[in-house]
Each structure stands twice: as C-alpha cells, then as structure tokens.
Amino acid sequence: MPLENALVVARREYLARVRTKGFWLATIALPLLLAGMGVVPTLLMVGADTGQRLVVVDETGEIGDLLRRELGASEIPGLQEVAGFTLTVEAPAADRQAQRAELNRRVLDGEIDAWSWLDDASITEGRIGYNAESVSNFLTQERLEDALSRAVRVYRLERAGYDAEAVSELTSGVRLKTSKISEEGEKEEGAEAGIILAYLLFFLLYMVLLIYGQQVMNGVLEEKTSRIVEVIVSTTRPFELMLGKLTGVCCTALTQLGIWLAALAVVTLPGVVSAMAWIPEEVDLPTFAPGIFLHFLICFLLGFFLFSSVYAAIGAAFNNVQEAQQFASVAVFFLIAPVFFFWVVINDPDSTVSVVTSLVPLFTPLLMMLRIAIKTPPAWQIVLGYLLTALATWASIWAGARIYRTGILMYGKKPSARELWRWLRRA
Prior knowledge:
The chain has 427 residues and is α/β, with parallel strands linked by helices. The chain has 18 helices and six strands. A four-stranded mixed β-sheet has the order 2-1-3-4, sandwiched between helices. The protein has a two-stranded antiparallel ribbon with strand order 5-6.
C-alpha cells in the first residue's frame, strides 16, 4: 500500500509541532529546571550562615566536650553545611530557674537559636530537652540527637568502668562490599548508580508515553471538532492519516527526548568529573553498555505506537475532551500499573513476578526497560517480550484504524460499546 500520503502527514505534524514556541519552551524549561534544582540550592548555601547557635548547660562536666567532638565528626558529606552547629558549653548557675529564663530570653532576642540542659535525670531517662523558638528543623534535630546519643553512650560506658573506644570497636557494624559478576570477572560496584539510571530511564519513558499519547488524542479531537479532517480525508485514506499523525508525533517526541538527554549529559558532567576526584582508586566506576540506549529506543517506539494508536482511536470516537478523558483513564491505568511493580523488579529482576509482568505487552515497554537497566535478562525473554508487544502494537493499530476510519466523521453522538464493536467489524 503506498504510504506517500502518510509521510506527507507525518512531515506536516512534525513541522507544525517543532515550530511552535510551546514546544521549545517546554524543551528548554525542563533542563533549566533540573539544573536549577541542582545548582541554585548549592549557590544559596555558599556563604550562608547555616550553623545553629546552640548552648548546652552541662551539669556532668563531661558530656559537653564529648558532644562537641561528635558534632565535628560528620560522616555524611555536606551535612555540616546543611545542619551545622556553633556549640557553646556552659556550667550550671546557682539559680537554675533564673538561668533557664535567661536562656529563653537569649533565644527570643536572637542571640542564640536553641539550648539544652544535660543532667543526670535527663540522661537516665533518655530524654534531653531541646528548646528553640522553632522546632520544625527536623534535619538539625536529627543530627543533634544522633550526636547526643553517641556522646551519652560514651559517658555511660566510662562511668560503668568500660573502655568506650574498645566497646565501640567491638560492637561496630559491618557494611556490604558489593561486586558485580560478569563474564570478565568480579568488579566492585555499588547499587546506587544502576538504580539511578533505571529510575531515570523508567520514568522518562513513562512521562513521554503519557504526555505524547494525550497529545495525539487532543490533536485528533481538535481536527475533528474544527472539521479540518473532512478536507484531509478527501485526499488521504484514514489509515494513512492516522499512521502519518502517529509517525509525526513520534518524531517530535524523539527530537525532544534527544535534546533532554543531551542537556542531562551536559548538566551532570561537571558533577561526575568532580565526584571522580574523591572516589578511591580501588573502586571501579559503574559502566553501562551502549546497547541499553538501543533498548530504550525500541521500548519507546513499541510503547508509543501501542498507546498512541489507542489514544488516536479514543480521540476519533468522541466529540470533546471531557468525554475522551473519561475513556482515556482506562489506557492511563496500563501506564500507571507498572509503577506498582517498580521496586519488585528493582529488588529481584529475575523473580517470577518480574519476568511475567515484563512479558505482558502493555507492561513490556516500561518493565522490560527497567529489567535491562538493572540486569540484562536472558535474550529469549527480551526477544519474546518485544515480539509479543510488536504483535499487540500491530493489533492496536489495526483496531484503532478501524475505529478512527469511522469515528473521525461522526459528530454529535457519544458512541456506545456496541457501536464501537460494530465499527471494528464492518469498517
């Protein structure tokens, strides 16, 4: 069947979309937003006074110095800047009540931010007061609580006659040292990089399929309600019109995706280069096979034509956005459903649930991509998943074209399920 008309429609759809200001605003806005989310908070913290001025009244005469040591030993990079402390240790006065009132006054006057009182009763009970004008700073409180717990633990052990350092060493926990096994052998690698990549590819694919499927439906509805489609179908077969529209929107999505991925690489490159400076030499950086991006392209194409043909049929069958959106929620469900299996697949990509769900055609574009990003499945599973999804895509385009063929010229009446079935049989 000649498809010259479909190519003409595809070219028209593509140029009509990429030449709009909205397309470029949306394309540029996302990378700028991501860059802003990563850079602006850092710039705001540079030179900012983020340290909390804390006064600790220490009746024990020992815990205050232990707390100062613990607060200075932050294990998490950047935590000192986000939840830092300027600690002042004071001895208790003869009049405790007057000293407490004076500390409250200093807080209200802005001289200090918070104060705590350490005595034997609070240490025995395990509840130490934190007094401040605002108590919503949970990050700061959590860090202070952890440091106080370690300082009090050392204090209790030493009072009981134990060597606190020896006890800490003997009771210290262990961490797993993960190594990825491949045909080349073992390679030390953490799970974070793979999970981050899988997360990005999964949700990028999810958002693009959802956004552009809706655009296909809205585009069909716009042409139908404006009666433009009546002119177009006089020279183009409905199937060619639908195929051309899907192809044009698909190329638009690929253009936007390419720009986003390129911008993501540019934005993250400085961070990756700086991170490499402090990574130990014995730790190998995770590597990603170039084929993963080929799989991403295949999953995108299969998912796009599968869902967009459904959206095109919905747009052709109904008369306005409100009616179409109600029916489109059914298609949206099959896009949302894979999200519920996200952590199941992440945790065990070879489990029965992961394998079976990734072979369901409506779930394959998202879940198979997720499995490939975490751990490449056996080749037969990938081929079978792609084959089943391709067959489902062909069936969806075939059924969608039949509904599209009749629905684009139907006005003023909301079709029933029986009428949709009749269109499928007789078109």
